[in-house]
Amino acid sequence: MTDPSSPTGTTVARQVLALLASSGLREGDRIPSERVLATELRVKRAVVREALRSLMLLGLLESRPGSGTFVSGADSEWVSKAIEWGLLLGVRNTIDLVEARGQLEIVAARLAAQRRTAADLEELGAIIEAMGRAGSDRTDLTAHDLAFHLALARASHSDVLSHLFESVSTLLEVWISRVLASKPAAELHGEYLEHKQILDAVAESDAERAQELMREAMRLGQRSLVQTLQAAARHEAEDRADRLLVVRGSRTSDRSRSTSGVRVAGGRW
């Protein structure tokens, strides 16, 4: 199987993103099938499949069993960011990028506990209050969750960290929304409590506790993302199996119709 992190896989994913950005496709529109894309781009369907799976993980596309693959969000800013950050390297490298983000979050939490100012705490506190009011509204929670992590990076007073977080803010939003989408409504209040505990540690200048709380938050978030990816892969495999059964059933039916009414020598069927 062709490695989706190869230049061929990258080219396929870039072609799909270019289609979203330039062809006028909107949310809910169906994109060409794997077979059509593979034929047009002259690559194996396995390469196309891996590229599409990466884009589905990032929230740009969604697979609807029995119907095909559809645009789930394609604003020009997100597409340009996806291209800029090269999220076309396949599932494994996407997870690697999530792991790298987790390490940066841990460093940011520790530095924020050591360097935060009164103004930083005021900003972080306002975000936590808004998160508490959001309840189970996943859209609001995603926005406040993202704002918290960006504010925490600023509170680290590291220009490098702050710039990195701002640069990948669109990716963070996608990942956060994916994690929240995977949780039952009853568990969403835990997101508020988790972030409040981190803020409390930062406010108390407890760098060790802030670091460990963030480490655990990243571990749980990463696990949710991996589970989402695995579920998507299972659904895709089931969908392929269903399509194969339909094709085989259709061929069997065609063969049966083609032989009906035809007698062989001796008058036997």
Approximate shape: elongated
Structural class: mainly alpha
Count of runs of 4 or more consecutive helical residues: 11
Strand order of the largest sheet: 1-2
| Oligomeric state as shown | single chain
Q: Could you give a short account of the major beta sheet? A: 2 strands, antiparallel
Number of strands: 2
H/E element sequence: HHHEEHHHHHHHH
Q: What do you see in this structure?
A:
The protein is mainly α. The protein has two domains: 7-88, Arc Repressor Mutant, subunit A; 91-225, Four Helix Bundle (Hemerythrin (Met), subunit A). It has helices at residues 7-22, 34-41, 45-57, 76-84, 91-115, 118-134, 138-155, 159-167, 169-181, 189-203, 207-259, and strands spanning 61-64, 68-71. It has a two-stranded antiparallel ribbon. Strand 1 and strand 2 form a beta hairpin. The longest helix is centred in the last third of the chain and has 53 residues, at 207-259. It is elongated. Mean pLDDT is 78; it is low at 1-8, 83-90 and 262-269.
